[in-house]
Design brief:
The protein is an alpha/beta fold. It has helices spanning 2-10, 20-32, 62-75, 97-113, 136-151, 157-175, 179-188, 194-206, 209-216, 222-227, 233-250, 254-272, 278-283, 298-325, 328-340, 346-365, and strands spanning 38-44, 48-49, 81-85, 91-95, 125-132. It folds into four domains: 2-114 and 121-195, no CATH class; 215-288; 294-326; 339-368. The protein contains 16 helices and five strands. α6 packs across α7 and α11 (233-250) packs antiparallel against α12 (254-272).
């Protein structure tokens, strides 16, 4: 990225004083010069190295690679791969890992059909957009941007979040821009909706490292982590302490740990939505691990627990539905989905659910 660095050196120093708008303009100008440092070349497939930093590698299964190989054999390679040429003559892959895996599968087929090696093999070489002179930070930026643009939301939440977080960090480090400018540039380079972009960027901005770690190690889901974003850092510490106690009390029992964590997270998320009484609610987080049992006849405890479970499930359903009904965009999206898919109807399912709920309420009300 020689031209990119040269351009950067010509920009006046004192970037801390630049506005976010100027930061974004600077990033867009610099990134627009990337393609000037590349050329299309035909390179040997065996000289291409898979990038160890590609977060999506684990999502490529044999069946999808087989299907891609068949498609390339029929139609040829429709999109060039992107590589960074190293001083030792090898090429580090920046975009197109699935395509290279498919090409190597085609190459293997050719070699098996020609054990003597006397024929010219079609898939030994591939045309690639080749960068020269890139530093490791620039390679990572191009790698992650390619995945974000091509793969979008096709991976799991953990992979997507890790990729976006690293991409934003590297944009800031490479071009000395603030977070808002990095996020604005990211929005300009993705097909994700604004609300989706906001979810993934909010994760980085709002959550403390300990909560992020709970998500990364699978203790809580991405949705659960996002529900905690409205909490202040000091309030999130109370949540972290409660979760750590729950994990300790579960004594290695994963099912019990999941139950405890869910109880605490539900209460913390409820507190996050509160404008009044949040502090008191958070102060009682540890009580959610094992809710206190009131002095009632022993036979009544199981009934009351079942009742509380039903009410909690009802509250969750109504909360989820309220999020949909409060958004015109989500309602319009559901209408389009319902119109496009003839396999069942969302409206009919909701009507049936409402009818069954009303019938159950009547039975309970009438004591039957």
């Amino acid at each position: 990225m020689g031209k990119l660095d040269k351009l950067k050196s010509q920009i006046p120093q004192g970037s801390q004083e630049l506005s976010t708008k100027n930061h974004l303009a600077k990033t867009e100008i610099a990134m627009s010069f990337q393609n000037e440092g590349t050329e299309l070349t035909r390179i040997l497939l065996r000289n291409i190295e898979f990038n160890p930093h590609n977060l999506w590698s684990c999502n490529d299964d044999d069946e999808s690679i087989q299907q891609l190989a068949d498609a390339i054999e029929r139609n040829g390679l429709l999109h060039n791969i992107v590589v960074s040429q190293r001083e030792d003559g090898t090429f580090m892959l920046l975009s197109g890992e699935r395509r290279v895996k498919a090409l190597r599968l085609l190459q293997k087929r050719e070699q098996e059909s020609d054990p003597t090696g006397q024929k010219a093999h079609k898939w030994d070489r591939v045309q690639a957009q080749t960068y020269t002179g890139l530093d490791e930070l620039s390679e990572l930026i191009i790698l992650d941007e390619a995945n974000i643009m091509v793969r979008g939301l096709s991976g799991d939440a953990k992979t997507i979040q890790a990729c976006i977080s690293r991409y934003l960090d590297n944009l800031q480090a490479k071009f000395q821009v603030d977070r808002r400018a990095a996020e604005a540039y990211f929005k300009s380079r993705t097909q994700m909706t604004d609300s989706t972009v906001q979810r993934y960027t909010q994760f980085d901005k709002s959550l403390i490292d300990d909560v992020k770690e709970f998500f990364q190690n699978g203790t809580i889901s991405h949705a659960q982590a996002l529900s905690l974003c409205p909490l202040e850092p000091s309030e999130q510490i109370l949540y972290v302490n409660a979760i750590n106690k729950a994990i300790q009390m579960s004594n290695g029992d994963k099912a019990l740990e999941h139950t405890y964590v869910t109880r605490i997270t539900d209460r913390a998320a409820q507190a996050a939505r509160m404008t009044n009484g949040r502090e008191a609610e958070l102060a009682r987080l540890e009580e959610a691990i094992i809710p206190p049992v009131h002095a009632k006849p022993a036979g009544d405890v199981a009934v009351r627990t079942q009742k509380a479970t039903l009410i909690r499930k009802y509250e969750k359903v109504t909360f989820d539905l309220s999020k949909i009904t409060s958004s015109k965009r989500r309602l319009n999206s559901l209408r389009k989905m319902d119109a496009a898919d003839g396999d069942g109807s969302i409206v009919e399912s909701l009507d049936k659910l409402a009818k069954e709920a009303a019938e159950l309420a009547d039975l309970l009300r009438n004591g039957q």
